[in-house]
Design a protein that fits this description.
Length: 345
């Protein structure tokens, strides 16, 4: 059994997501202890628990001690099989983070896997919006042979949730290596500024989009940001910015709106974050780099990406990956930072 200290370094939910995914894929039983020990509310929260249960259902595995607040779990995986999964998130837990748990296992079953998600948030705190997953992560992963489709039937916002989402993953027997090291030139930027119908009258979506556009166009980048108003259980908003460069890299940034934060500030934060990534010379933003590491490790051949810096999330993910797989990561610190992995051989 592989044993992992859940308080290691970053000490958050990423340890659970990466470890349970690799346990399901490799067939290695897993024990995680000290789960989120340093957090204000230690132990499993709803979104962590639902992710673990979904993976267990996908591979007919035996999951022990999966309860809210639990600081230790055991997981004995079975065989990954194609099926429909039904997941209900009773809180505003992140649908994007649920996908992070399932993104590898759903493409290693011997056929399609469809996840039907009821509840949770497409825009949640401290998590990638599902629109970023759809428009940034999945297009990048398509280069290595990964294929999945995300359909947002209803958006959900913090603090209520209430999303409706369907995700289908297709079998990929072998991942090709990924090389994203040259940032290239940003010529045009697109984006989606989303707000609930509650916020139509104060023009929140337009204000987020306009404030982001003004900042980005001062850098000479042509910008087109779409605005959307959507049905949701509670007021909420967020913006996702995306640009494919001359080398095929996808530079992105996103920010969720919060009560008391002006719409203009949300747009400005997203624009400044995007420009910081562009100025770093990296081909991958710091959040996307964390999400790509597991694929780089599982790929058959050498992969390399550049990121603005190596985050604690990335260091934590590398630690967990190397517990399961005989791979080495090579980090060359700099501006930008180069992350290489020889992958499986």
């Amino acid at each position: 059994m592989i044993e992992i200290d859940g308080s290691y370094l970053e000490g958050g939910g990423a340890i659970l997501r990466v470890a349970s995914a690799l346990s399901a894929v490799t067939g290695e039983p897993l024990r995680i202890y000290n789960i989120r020990a340093g957090r204000e509310n230690p132990g499993l929260r709803t979104q962590h628990m639902e992710g673990l249960k979904a993976i267990a259902s996908l591979c007919s595995g035996n999951l022990k001690n999966a309860a809210i607040g639990s600081t230790e779990i055991e997981f004995h995986p079975g065989k990954l099989e194609p099926r429909d999964l039904f997941v209900e998130i009773s809180t505003a837990g992140s649908v994007g983070l649920l996908f992070q748990s399932l993104k590898v296992p759903i493409c290693k079953a011997d056929g399609d896997v469809t996840i039907h998600i009821k509840g949770g948030a497409t825009f949640a705190k401290w998590a990638p919006p599902l629109l970023t997953t759809k428009h940034v992560l999945l297009p990048v992963l398509s280069r290595i042979g990964y294929s999945a489709k995300t359909e947002i039937k209803r958006h959900g916002f913090y603090p209520v949730g209430g999303a409706r989402v369907e995700i289908t993953g297709h079998l990929c027997k072998e991942f090709k290596p990924l090389t994203l090291t040259e940032a290239g030139e940003v010529k045009e930027l697109t984006g989606i500024s989303v707000a609930s119908e509650h916020l139509r009258k104060p023009r929140v979506a337009e204000r987020m989009a306009e404030s982001a556009r003004k900042i980005i166009e001062t850098s000479g980048i042509k910008t087109k940001i779409e605005t959307q108003y959507v049905d949701a259980q509670c007021p909420g908003c967020g913006i996702v910015l995306r640009s494919e460069t001359s080398t095929g890299a996808i530079i992105s940034a996103d920010v969720m709106g919060e009560r008391g934060k002006p719409a203009e500030t949300v747009g400005e934060e997203a624009a400044n974050s995007l420009l910081q990534t562009i100025e770093s010379g990296a081909a991958v933003d710091r959040h996307l780099s964390d999400q790509l590491l597991i694929f780089m490790a599982l790929a058959h051949g050498k992969s390399a990406i550049t990121a603005p810096r190596l985050t604690n999330h990335a260091k934590t993910n590398i630690h967990v990956i190397q517990k399961f797989l005989p791979v080495e990561f090579r980090i060359t610190e700099g501006k930008p930072t180069l992350i290489e992995c020889a992958g499986l051989r």
